[in-house]
Specification:
Structural class: alpha+beta
Oligomer: single chain
Strand content: 25-35%
CATH topology: Alpha-Beta Plaits
Order of helices and strands: EHHEEHHHE
Radius of gyration: 16 Å
Number of strands: 4
Shape: globular
CATH architecture: 2-Layer Sandwich
Length: about 110
């Protein structure tokens, strides 16, 4: 199982629109996300910073499948128009960045009980 975090920075004037879009997510988009292999997805918002946490069996394969769907392409056009590159935070001019875990508590053995 893979858990990946994605960071994005919204244009300040687009924060409410972004929230509204997600409060009214298209049912066909939800179906496509699930069909492409995403098991869980959480979106957090802190000011203009968007943090997305995704859980799937194979992240790259799920993303590639989702990118090929017409519904995700339409959704992405709308969302990308709301984003601003944050080179200071991301270290690159891209408007979003994927972060892969380097440590997981579940991978650590538990000490024997005393």
């Amino acid at each position: 199982m893979q858990v990946v975090c994605e960071l994005m920075r919204l244009r300040p004037e687009c924060v409410q629109e972004y929230v509204d879009m997600h409060e009214n997510t298209w049912p066909e988009l939800v179906a496509a996300i699930r069909e492409c292999g995403f098991l869980e997805e959480y979106i957090y918002l802190r000011g203009t910073l968007v943090i997305v946490v995704m859980k799937c069996r194979d992240f790259r394969q799920s993303v590639d499948r989702l990118l090929a769907t017409a519904v995700f392409q339409r959704w992405t056009v709308r969302v990308r128009a709301m984003l601003v590159p944050d080179e200071t935070l991301f270290g690159a001019p891209e408007p979003l960045v994927d972060l892969f875990p380097i440590w997981n508590l579940a991978d650590c053995s538990q000490p024997e009980e005393l």
